[in-house]
Specification:
With 465 residues, the chain is α/β, with parallel strands linked by helices. The chain contains eleven helices and 21 strands. Strands 10-9-21-18-17-16 form a six-stranded parallel sheet. A four-stranded antiparallel sheet has the order 5-8-7-6, with no helix packed on it.
């Protein structure tokens, strides 16, 4: 093994059936601020932190199940992850019946594209890497391997709950040769997915057969079917601009003619946003119904987590079309603090809980032009403050069942984006802030729930008098 070792960097963690989060000493956080890059200038921005949350007392009394569920609150166990709304708040429920909120990291992968030779990282194999990475994640309160993660390497006592992504639409689009490269995702000819192609339904059934390999695994939370599909606000216009022999045009033309006749709309070219949203809901319903049926046919045990909706596609119409989902996944950018009213509107439209499946802040020099959807901040500490500020906002919301930070690695010598650098060394200062929040997830959820209901705080882990 190379001379570089990680035993002192990534703590080894052998997980027993019961383990307990210890709160540790919180960093002084009174009046915490972060430096945010806005239009090329550093701007001081206020943040909420665990250490300055008025009336909250950190607790280390919440025991955790092997999956990371809270052992002081239990409901029906199904042997797999599921969801349940209890007293007005949505929860994941782990396979043993314990209530669970998902704190995950995306892209937990061993083959860092910025690391030329894996052997130089200090591990003998991906499995060796997974053991150390398991310790890093668990010791900082993370309980889920998010999208794009190499969950297969986390085996035996080093398992973690995980998610899978299957690329139904993008795989079908590539088969038809109608895809185009989008920013961070796959796009399609004229921005119109081949959702109305006559072979799409049979393709989905065949594509979903591979899900049967993990259908009996209790550690699997559920499935993402795609990533950032183009459910755009002007989808009707995009479909009607397709060639007239395209199945998408034919279906959109038929829908629009019938819709105009039913609603007594005016001239053909006059399409309001209400009209566009009606078609968007129709397309979303078709996609999620067909894909959801295929997923459940081959894996009836696990949750359908959606397609990681993003940007302008995050609209009530899209969510209304997603009601066949179990959880709505949203890649949630451009909000320093979560917008509670928006989350409520989206969750109500879907009738389902919300999982924030991708979001982040990167530390960058002000002089560099760097692509990416996340916020630009000045330091590693600012990234940690953003994490606390944002997750506190999510924990306040009863419709949110968790979040997955983007991502494990990804630093390139200019920007800092991962929780580890390109040589797999942890960003300790940011991780300390993450740990402080993550290890209080369940006490904080109770604190905010009691605040909503006007109750006095209750010490987690202790029965009420």
């Amino acid at each position: 093994m190379p001379s570089v070792t990680h035993s002192s960097v990534f703590p080894s963690c052998i997980v027993a059936a019961l383990w307990v989060w210890h709160s540790g000493a919180l960093l002084p956080a009174t009046g915490a601020e972060a430096e945010l890059l806005v239009k090329g200038k550093w701007t001081t921005t206020a943040v909420d932190t665990v250490g300055e949350l008025d009336g909250f007392t950190p607790s280390d009394k919440v025991g955790l199940s092997p999956y990371g569920g809270r052992m002081d609150r239990r409901t029906r166990a199904s042997g797999f992850f599921r969801t349940e709304k209890i007293d007005g708040r949505w929860w994941f429920v782990d396979p043993e019946g314990y209530l669970f909120l998902s704190a995950g990291i995306c892209s937990v992968i061993s083959n860092n594209p910025q690391q030329e030779d894996f052997s130089k990282s200090g591990w003998d194999s991906p499995e060796d890497w997974a053991k150390s990475t398991h310790g890093l994640l668990k010791s900082h309160g993370f309980n889920t391997l998010g999208c794009w993660s190499e969950w297969q390497h986390f085996q035996g006592e080093y398992r973690l709950p995980y998610t899978c992504r299957w690329n139904f639409m993008s795989t079908f689009g590539r088969k038809l040769k109608v895809t185009a490269k989008g920013f961070g995702h796959t796009d399609y000819k004229n921005g119109a997915m081949p959702i109305f192609h006559p072979e799409f339904e049979s393709f989905c059934d065949e594509h979903a057969r591979q899900l049967s390999k993990t259908k009996d695994d209790p550690w699997l939370i559920g499935h993402f079917s795609d990533n950032e599909l183009p459910f755009r606000p002007n989808l009707l216009d995009l479909f009607l601009a397709l060639p007239k022999d395209d199945p998408g045009f034919i279906a959109a033309r038929k829908w629009w003619d019938e819709y105009r006749a039913k609603t007594r709309k005016g001239p053909d070219e006059e399409r309001s946003q209400e009209d566009q949203d009606a078609f968007l809901e129709y397309v979303a319903h078709r996609y999620y119904s067909i894909v959801g049926a295929a997923i459940r046919r081959h894996d009836p045990n696990h949750l359908y987590l959606g397609s990681r909706i993003h940007g302008r596609c995050i609209r009530p119409a899209t969510l209304r079309g997603s009601r066949t989902l179990d959880v709505v996944s949203i890649n949630y950018y451009h909000h320093w603090t979560p917008k509670a009213d928006q989350i409520s509107l989206l969750a109500k439209a879907a009738g389902r809980p919300v999982l924030m499946s991708e979001w982040y802040a990167m530390a960058v020099p002000a002089s560099e032009e760097i692509r990416g959807a996340g916020f630009r901040v000045k330091t590693e500490r600012d990234r940690g403050w953003f994490y606390q500020n944002h997750t506190l906002g999510l924990l306040k919301h009863p419709d949110c069942v968790g979040w997955h930070w983007f991502k494990y690695s990804g630093d390139d010598g200019v920007k800092q984006i991962g929780i580890v650098d390109r040589d797999y060394r942890p960003h300790r200062l940011m991780l300390q802030s993450m740990r402080e929040l993550n290890q209080q997830i369940y006490p904080l959820a109770d604190f905010f729930e009691n605040s909503r209901k006007g109750k006095k705080p209750v010490d987690p882990g202790r029965d009420e008098d």
